[in-house]
Amino acid sequence: MKQSEQNSIESGNTILPLGSVVKTRRDPGTLLVIIARAPLTVMHGTTGYFDYGAVQFPYGMTDPAKIVFFNSQDVTEIVFMGYINAEERSYERRFDEVTKSTSYPHLHL
After folding, report:
1. Which branch of life, at top level (predicted)?
2. Cβ contacts of residue 30 below 8 Å, gap of 6+?
3. Helix ranges (DSSP H) in 1-109
4. How far is 100 from 56, CA to CA, in rounded Å?
5. Residue ranges of the domains in the chain?
6. Is the dihedral of CA 37, 38, 41, 43 positive or negative?
7. Beta strands, E only, the chain
8. 3-state secondary structure of 23
9. C-alpha span between 25 and 76 (Å, rounded)
10. Given CA atoms 23, 27, 33, 38 in this order, what sign does their dihedral have?
11. What is the reported pLDDT for 108?
12. Distance between CA 58 and CA 79 in Å, rounded?
C-alpha cells in the first residue's frame, strides 16, 4: 500500500474527494481524476453504482462514454487528494450509510 493511500485511510476517509488523482489496478499507467462518487451506470444490463467515476488526466472529459468506473479497492495509488473542507468531511461520514440504503446494487469490475 502506498504511503499516500495509508494517510487517506488513517485520516478516516471512507471515500476520496472529487478532484483526487489516482492509479488503478485495471490500467496502472493511467492517471484518473475523480469526477463522480456513487455514479449510476449500466453493466451487463444491470443498473447499479461504482464508488467512483473518473476521466483520464490530463485530458478531462472528452467523451461521456469514456468515463472510467471503479471502486475503492481498485485504487493502487493516490497521487493527489482533492479539496477537503467541512462540507466534504460531512459527506464522507454519510457516504457509507447513503450507499447502503440505496436499492441499486454495488457493481464490481
Report:
1. Bacteria
2. 23, 24, 56, 57
3. 3-10, 86-100
4. 28
5. 3-97
6. positive
7. 21-24, 32-37, 40-43, 46-49, 52-56, 68-70, 75-80
8. strand
9. 6
10. negative
11. 94
12. 13
How long a stretch of residues is the chain?
109
| Angstrom distance (rounded) from CA 20 to CA 7 | 14
CA distance 92 to 105: 20
Q: What is the pLDDT along the chain (109 residues), one digit of tens a residue?
A: 354 444 443 344 579 999 999 999 999 999 999 999 999 999 999 999 999 999 999 999 999 889 999 999 999 999 999 999 999 999 999 998 989 999 999 999 8
Greatest C-alpha distance within the chain: 38
Q: Which residue has the cell 473542507?
A: 85
pTM of the shown model: 0.84
